[in-house]
Every structure is written in structure tokens, then in C-alpha cells.
Amino acid sequence: MSLSDEERRTIVQLEIERARRTFKEVEALKNAELWNGVANRLYYAVFHAISALMIHDGHQVHTHHGSHAMFGQQYIKTGILPAEYGRLYNQLQTMREESDYNCAFDADSEILEEKIEPARQMIETIEKMVSD
Predict the structure, then answer these.
(1) Alpha helices in 1-132 (DSSP H)
(2) Do the Cβ atoms of 28 and 54 come closer than 8 Å?
(3) pLDDT on residue 64
(4) pLDDT tens readout for residues 80-120
(5) CATH value of 5-130 in 3.40.1190.20, 1.20.120.330, 3.20.20.70, 3.30.470.20
(6) Which of 68, 70, 45 lies closest to 59, judged by CA?
């Protein structure tokens, strides 16, 4: 499916807005010490920002794993974005999957707290990249 420039801009803006709203949920969950929820929302905040970037640049992906592969190929391996963003995205996905699907797993508050600021910076960097 091909998008017009206007459709692409609209979807990119909606994805960025979703990333911002989802990131705001992280703070509320953190304050409530709901760390599995923090893992989920932190991953999805970054996921929506990356989705905005890929849509902005005309890349199509249909799965979360496809998003990871495309992000690595198009933005990390090419040096457009730093390797630590690729590592952060992978770590967040792993924590999200564990916290969502493994009933014996509890997200580590210390590890997650260390990821919040880098995730915010990553989202802001991507937001600048897609703003026209």
C-alpha cells in the first residue's frame, strides 16, 4: 500500500503522539512501582517512535521482530543512529516480552530506571528526525 505524502505525515505525527503519551504512562507506573507495566510501556513508547521513523522514511514492516530487523539494518548498521539505541531497543523488547508472557518474571526496578532516560532521549532524537 502506497501512502500519499499527506497520509504519511499524518501517520508519522500520530505515531509520535502515541510515543509521547505512552512515555507519560511510564512515570505513573514507576510511581506506583508497577515495574512490569513500566517495561511494557517503555518498550511501546520506543516502538511507536521507531514506527514513526520507518513510516517517515518509507520502510514497511508488519511485525515487532520485523521492526527490530529493519531498525538495525537501516539505522544502526548504517550509523544513522548510535549502536546503543539498537541495544536499548533489544533490551526493552526482551524485558517487555518477559514481563508480559512469563508469569514467573518480575521486571527489575533498578534496570528499568536506568533505561528511562536513554529511552526518552531516543524518542526525542527520532522526533527531531521526522519533523519536517
Answers:
(1) 5-31, 35-56, 64-71, 83-101, 109-130
(2) no
(3) 86
(4) 999 999 999 999 999 999 999 999 999 999 999 999 999 99
(5) 1.20.120.330
(6) 70
